[in-house]
Specification:
The complex is a heterodimer. Chain A is of the alpha/beta class. Chain A has helices at 4-12, 35-39, 68-73, 98-105, 124-133, 144-148, 197-211, 220-245, 249-255, 267-279, 300-324, 391-403, 407-411; strands at 46-52, 62-63, 85-86, 92-93, 109-116, 161-164, 180-182, 286-291, 331-336, 357-362, 369-371, 389-390. In chain A, the strands form two sheets. In chain A, strands 1, 5, 6, 7, 8, 9, 10, 11 and 12 form a nine-stranded mixed β-sheet that branches. The chains are: A alpha/beta, B mainly alpha.
Chain lengths: 425, 547
């Protein structure tokens, strides 16, 4: 280099700063032998977990508008009776959550109050790990959904868990060993091979054969080999399923933009794709999608309103699509966040990290209503709401009652169930 | 001292582990170990660099890595002057990748990458490429310096102040964001402080703001809480400087940083109890001299042992730049790497959160591994960069010039103004390989005879331009047999021959059902294409995914 002219020409090269990936034909997916099975609808139940990253302010989500202490603690952020979507004469939903209010009125939304765990951690990462590993004592290295997978019978496409979001799997799926995959944008979720068709096939076989060679279990190289082979297996199954899902014009457009696709999609897009995959009979039973931005240290009112509006619309939209495919009663959605926020708002019209908060569990098979009482605003712990319901009670209820996976094996202990599900017909 | 370290890591005496290594019979200073050093201390090596380093010897090589090239300071001056003008994420990413490749100080760039992950700050919230550039320059300044002034500089870094809401942290209404991360992620690690310490530290940092223009640090005395606080057992009217000092005074600080550097430079296998103690103690006793710690690690017996060899998963940046340096003869625009890197899970200047990227085996899930497969294929086929495929009439393309000039603002000094295109033919090639690669015309004349019985196979895709042809490196030593070609591929990729079982399979693939290639067949397009395919397959092996 040594001069800037040289530097510019080499760094930035041609006019295409972002070289658009050349469209290489993907590998020819083998015709699914089980094409007929895919149409035969499974009765398997499905759980969709929605992570609200950053620590959602539960107090301004399910609002105790009937409590004076709430209005005192939130001089600028409090929502008044006239604003909220009242659930009863004390609780109201945030005004932007119209779709969830409808589900509440239909008795298919459960609001679980005061959820948390002992000695709450106020670090995002630590607390996210606690929720996702389902172990406040941090003895578990694997995620709770990963531990669910071995007990989960899965048919058809054979991918038990699917993550729609950034490239890497969330901790909840950690340790799933190929049982869960991340569905990044569809365009790059293809193996690219240049050359005549028969040579492509031969090369893929060579890669598979080279990676089939042993390697001890627990050995790093062995892990990489296994992961390489799992990638091709998963790829083929998802590719088949996606092909059958069909793409609307919006998705086409998004997938033609670099960096688009599932990775950058909104929560509504992600939940809609899940609904489509379910409608098409993809065998996946655990879906995980995240929405970011809930870490509202300052100017919370506007940003949280937008986010809650998106959550509500996304869930409402997903059940609409599922209903059109006759699959809505197979799906339960659970939302969670790593913690709630401090009761007293801070000096920046925001809130700092807190502890207990509410969760939503939604779906036609959910027993609608408010579960548990709103945590007391006069009896705080370090300025935060005290929990009265361990989050693992929610997990245990859904594991045993919805997925049919024994919860004690997943959670390492028995937890009392909550009345979240309608009695089975 | 034992002649070789025990094969069980838990049985290795820490004193032996960190004793200075010198080349010996078990681990000679050869291509395998030199390539290992350059994967860790740099972004891989070119063939020519490995030749030189083997001639220079280990001691000189380590010194050069630690000090950088003699003209590194001059190069940085130019880079710094250019980097600050970018207004777009892709440009500033390409700029940093270029600095890694051409800045003349790869170890410092490598550590800058480490610290970027440590003090993980994202353009997605900071918004300003200029602030990210400035933070990057600060990371580089301290990358091999001392940790105390480093942590203080980061506590006043404008991008960091934006990233962790420092302007919201005011007397009477503290915002704990920075105070928590400075202990949890930047200096001590979880378990070495309490929630009370977080609240005290937040008060200590009140008033540490950026100016209203968001350009510089500004101490806002009126918003600073100067009341007494107790932080990590120290009581006083503590301010931000005190909080940094007190955090660095904790023994946990040396342990935490030594542990993170160990995973980055030596091994991702969790170290047994006690292995890092001598390092952490020495690090603290040296008042956190990072260069000294890095030198001890890279020059240690443990580093030159199987306990370190291929014991890390390459970060995407390492995977991509290593492929370029080891295999691609030309110097092509790193902007073409930006998109593949994002698919592999590492967009520079945009780590997923303040905790940084999830490294190790977490780099590899089906999507990211597939992205590595696909990048490797593009490199092997020479299609990853558009840089060499422009019209070759030697005239500057108006659109390109406009793009390049749009990068710089009008107030840049005159020498920058005329942007002269370099025709692809004159792109300098690395290594002695150029002559071995025939141009497309020469290859076409070497058609294979004698396949008349079968229907003619589909023709292979045309060979890539010479500046992107990975076979230049492989055929540089003029391998005469198929096993020799496979060996040369292994050396180019791993610094070592492939494992025998893999070598046999690759040889069979290259032979394509024949017993041995005819004399001129290895120059034929079909064989060359198969060689590129085999190279791609080898880049999908653990031997290549691991560092």
């Amino acid at each position: 280099m040594h001069n800037r002219r040289d530097f510019l020409s080499r760094t930035l090269g041609g006019s295409s700063l972002l070289a658009v990936g050349s469209v290489v034909p993907g590998f020819v997916a083998r015709t699914a032998a089980a094409a007929d099975d895919a149409k035969a609808k499974s009765k398997d139940t499905i759980l969709v977990v929605v992570e609200l990253s950053g620590g959602n302010d539960g107090l301004n989500t399910v609002i105790p508008y009937g409590d004076d202490l709430y209005h005192k603690a939130r001089p600028t952020l409090a929502l008044r009776k006239k604003q909220v979507l009242a659930l009863d004469d004390f609780h109201g939903l945030h005004p932007r959550m119209g779709e969830l209010k409808k589900m509440y009125d239909d008795k298919s939304l459960a609001v679980v109050q005061g959820v948390g765990y002992p000695n709450p951690d106020r670090s995002h990462f630590e607390s996210l790990d606690v929720w996702q590993q389902a172990d406040p004592k941090r003895g578990q290295a694997s995620g709770w959904l990963a531990r669910t997978i071995p007990g989960l019978p899965v048919r058809e496409a054979g991918v038990p868990g699917l993550y729609l979001g950034e490239n890497r799997l969330p901790v909840a799926f950690q340790g799933a060993d190929g049982g869960a995959i991340s569905l990044a944008d569809r365009k790059s979720f293809r193996l690219q091979l240049t050359g005549p068709d028969d040579s492509k096939k031969a090369r893929k076989s060579l890669i598979e054969s080279l990676n089939a060679d042993g390697g001890a279990a627990g050995d790093l190289a062995g892990f990489v080999r296994k992961r390489q082979l799992q990638t091709y297996t998963s790829l083929q199954r998802i590719e088949e399923a996606l092909k059958e899902t069909g793409t609307g014009p919006d998705e086409e457009r998004r997938n033609n933009q670099s960096g688009g696709g599932v990775e950058q999609a909104t929560l509504a897009d992600k939940l809609n794709l899940i609904a489509k995959l379910v409608n098409k009979g993809l065998g996946t039973r655990l879906y995980y999608a995240a929405a970011d931005g809930f870490d509202t240290h300052s100017r919370q009112a506007e940003s949280q309103a937008d986010l809650l509006g998106q959550v509500s619309q996304a869930i409402g939209g997903m059940f609409g699509t599922l209903k059109s495919g006759g699959n809505d009663d197979r799906v339960v959605v659970m939302t969670y966040s790593e913690f709630g926020r401090r009761v007293k708002e801070n000096g920046s019209r925001g809130t700092d990290h807190g502890a207990a908060a509410c969760m939503f569990v939604a779906g036609p098979k959910v027993a609608g209503g408010i579960v548990g009482k709103h945590p007391s605003l006069s009896d705080l712990t370090d300025g935060d709401l005290a929990y009265h319901t361990d989050f693992r009670r929610v997990y245990a209820t859904l594991l045993d009652g919805w997925l049919g996976v024994e919860s004690r094996g997943v959670l390492g202990d028995g937890f009392e169930h909550l009345p979240l599900l309608k009695p089975k017909a | 001292m034992a002649a070789t370290l025990p094969s069980e890591l838990s049985k290795v005496d820490p004193a032996d582990a960190w004793a200075a290594w010198s080349p010996g019979s078990g681990t000679p200073w050869d291509r395998k170990w030199a390539a290992h050093l350059f994967r860790r201390a740099a972004f891989g090596a070119t063939t020519a660099e490995l030749d030189k380093t083997l001639a220079d010897g280990f001691a000189l090589t380590l010194a050069r890595l630690l000090n950088g090239e003699p003209d590194a300071a001059a190069r940085w001056e130019v880079l710094a002057e250019t980097g600050r003008y970018y207004k777009d994420a892709t440009q500033v990413r390409a700029w940093w990748l270029y600095s890694m490749l051409e800045g003349g100080h790869p170890l410092r760039e490598k550590l800058t990458l480490f610290w970027h992950n440590h003090f993980a700050t994202s353009l997605n919230k900071v918004r300003s490429p200029r602030l990210m550039f400035e933070q990057n320059a600060t990371l580089r300044t301290h990358a091999l310096g001392r940790f105390r002034p480093f942590l203080l500089a980061m506590s006043r870094d404008p991008a960091m102040l934006v990233w962790l809401d420092s302007n919201r942290n005011v007397k009477g209404a503290p915002n704990e964001n920075y105070a928590r991360e400075v202990m949890e992620l930047f200096s001590l690690g979880v378990g070495n402080y309490t929630e009370k310490d977080v609240r005290a530290a937040a008060r200590a940092f009140t008033g540490w703001h950026h100016d209203p223009e968001v350009k510089a640090f500004e101490y806002n005395a009126g918003l600073h809480d100067d009341g007494p606080k107790t932080l990590l057992g120290v009581t006083g009217a503590l301010g931000g400087d005190d909080a940094v000092r007190i955090a660095c005074d904790q023994p946990a600080c040396g342990r935490f940083l030594a542990g993170k550097l160990y995973a980055f430079l030596v091994s991702e296998t969790p170290p047994p109890e006690g292995l890092l103690d001598p390092l952490a103690e020495r690090f603290r006793a040296s008042d956190y001299d990072i260069a000294a710690l890095v030198k001890t690690m890279l020059g240690s017996r443990l580093f030159f042992s199987d306990h370190a060899y291929r014991k890390r998963v390459k970060w995407p940046v390492e995977y991509a730049l290593g492929a370029l340096r080891g295999l691609v003869p030309g110097r092509l625009p790193p902007s073409d790497l930006v998109e593949p890197l994002s698919k592999m899970g590492q967009s520079l200047f945009a780590p997923p959160n303040v905790k940084g990227w999830r490294t190790g085996t977490d780099w590899l899930n089906s999507a990211t591994l597939l992205a590595r497969n696909n990048f490797a294929e593009a490199v092997a086929m020479g299609s990853w960069s558009k840089g060499g495929s422009r019209p070759t009439n030697g005239l500057p393309d108006a659109a390109e010039v406009a793009t390049a000039e749009a990068v710089v603002e009008a107030d840049i000094p005159a020498p920058l103004a005329p942007v002269e295109r370099i025709p692809p033919q004159s792109v300098p090639t690395r290594g002695p390989g150029g002559a071995a690669v025939a141009g497309p015309a020469a290859v076409l004349t070497a058609e294979v005879a004698g396949s008349a019985a079968k229907p003619p196979p589909a023709p292979p895709p045309p060979a890539p331009p010479a500046d992107r042809d990975v076979l230049a490196v492989v055929f540089a030593g003029k391998p005469a047999t198929v096993p020799a070609v496979v060996r040369a591929m292994g050396v180019a990729l791993f610094g070592d021959a492939p494992p025998p079982a893999a070598a046999k399979k690759i040889e069979a693939y290259l032979l394509d059902g024949k017993k041995a290639p005819a004399a001129n067949e290895m120059n034929a397009p079909a064989f060359r294409h198969r060689a590129r395919e085999a190279l791609h397959a080898m880049m999908c092996l653990p031997e290549y995914q691991l560092s």
